[in-house]
Design brief:
single chain; 426 residues; 23 helices; 67% helix; 0% strand; elongated
């Protein structure tokens, strides 16, 4: 286990390093290791600071260790407590009876404190709303206090309130108010609505069908909940899915298909249209997700996704082409990169350095001198200066003497002329 002797063997003896390690464990919720380190720190002759204890409270909060957190918090009362420490303790208070009692005691302490630095903030109220999931009247009271005190609400505020909503009508009102205030729903917002508040398959479908308008990709669990709700309602009524539910059901099946690495895992019911919803931002999120977790096994998925985007006419921007070209270049799918390059040039999209580099590599692999020259032109039209290597690559592909002369002249104008040009054969 972690003790002072073990830490000494690692060469960790100063209080600052102990504090950093405890903070790290606190952030990831390793409460037992955080507590062990505090004990080792004391055994080594160091005095833990309030920040150190707060880190332990955060670890307790991640794991909902309410009683242990409460005992530690009471030990800190002789220290100058900060709002961050209170918030760490509030996070550790669950929604059970004991957790709510502790939370309300802390909340009253903050409201009654003469210290302005300890007055409740949006984060404070968000923690309180989270503990009141089954007590709607208290949620209404807290929201009213925020309004009266001029404390702003954020997405977390509304998500927590929706989770406590006892009726679909209340949830709809909260969602409408949230969007009216200019706050954009998150995936968590829709998950809360579908799993906690939406009682009818109709509204579940409506919610899922509108996610793409906010550039959100529904999670597999959300898709399955909507599909299950539609199936259950359809079976109970012994009737096909009604027309007004079809867009949401289509979005659910399509969402599952995309999350399953672009492979079709469910056949759409014969009563629905197989056309997926067109959402450029949805596809951008998927491309970026593939880019972060790229592996060779994902190559076919990326190719399938690109094919689908072209097939249904998704309007592509440079934001799409940047991750797409990166992924396709790793797979050495030069022909697809050239196809994308032609689209970029035809649409007159502003070229970027990274995309141009990949496009030129594709031109080299496929011996496309004309496209390489147009890429250089697009770079300059965007305000980018091609490098000497960019010109060399294009010159090696060029077969037209006039093109060679033009490129050579441009290199001279840009001060890129080397001592010797690459051999060019006409």
């Amino acid at each position: 286990g972690i003790n002072a002797e073990y830490m000494g063997e690692l060469g960790i003896t100063d209080s600052d390093t102990y504090a950093l390690a405890i903070n790290a464990y606190g952030l990831v919720g390793k409460w037992q290791k955080a507590v062990d380190l505090v004990e080792a720190m004391v055994a080594a002759g160091h005095t833990p600071s309030l920040k150190t204890y707060t880190a332990c409270l955060q670890a307790y909060g991640v794991n909902q260790r309410t009683e242990e957190a409460w005992q530690l918090f009471n030990k800190c009362r002789d220290l100058p407590l900060t709002l961050t420490t209170y918030h760490a303790m509030l996070r550790a208070c669950g929604s059970d009876v004991t957790g709510q009692l502790y939370a309300w005691q802390l909340f009253r302490e903050l409201k009654d404190s003469p210290d302005t630095a300890l007055q409740p903030t949006t984060v404070t109220y968000n923690h309180m709303l989270t503990t009141c999931r089954e007590r709607w009247p208290l949620v209404v009271e807290l929201l009213g206090e925020m309004e009266a005190s001029g404390i702003s609400k954020d997405v977390v505020t509304y998500n927590a309130a929706m989770a406590a909503s006892p009726a679909e009508s209340h949830t709809r009102q909260l969602l409408d108010t949230m969007t009216a205030e200019g706050l954009s729903p998150t995936v968590g917002t829709f998950f809360t609505c579908v799993s906690h508040a939406a009682t009818s398959a109709e509204w579940k479908c409506e919610l899922l069908a509108t996610m793409h308008t906010y550039g959100l990709v529904p999670t597999p669990s959300l898709c399955r909940m909507v599909i299950s709700a539609c199936k259950s309602e359809s079976d109970s009524k012994n009737s096909p899915v009604p027309d007004h539910q079809k867009p949401g059901l289509i979005a659910a099946y399509h969402g599952l298909r995309l999350w399953k690495e672009c492979m079709r895992v469910h056949e759409l019911p014969s009563t629905t249209s197989p056309t997926p919803p067109k959402s450029p931002h949805t596809y951008l999120q998927l491309l970026q997700a593939y880019q972060r977790g790229h592996s060779k096994s994902k190559t076919q998925c990326v190719v399938s996704l690109y094919s689908e985007m072209r097939q249904i006419g998704v309007p592509l921007t440079m934001d799409h082409f940047i991750p797409l070209f990166t992924l396709l270049s790793k797979a050495r799918r030069w022909e697809l990169i050239l196809e994308g390059t032609e689209s970029i040039l035809a649409e007159g999209l502003p070229m970027t350095k990274d995309v141009a580099q990949v496009a030129l590599q594709a031109c080299k692999a496929e011996a496309r001198a004309d496209t390489a020259v147009r890429v250089l032109d697009a770079m300059q039209a965007t305000g980018l200066t091609p490098s000497r290597e960019d010109y060399h690559l294009t010159l090696l592909l060029a077969e037209d003497p006039q093109v060679v002369d033009r490129l050579t002249w441009e290199m001279g104008q840009l001060g890129l002329m080397p001592e010797a040009l690459p051999d060019v054969h006409f």
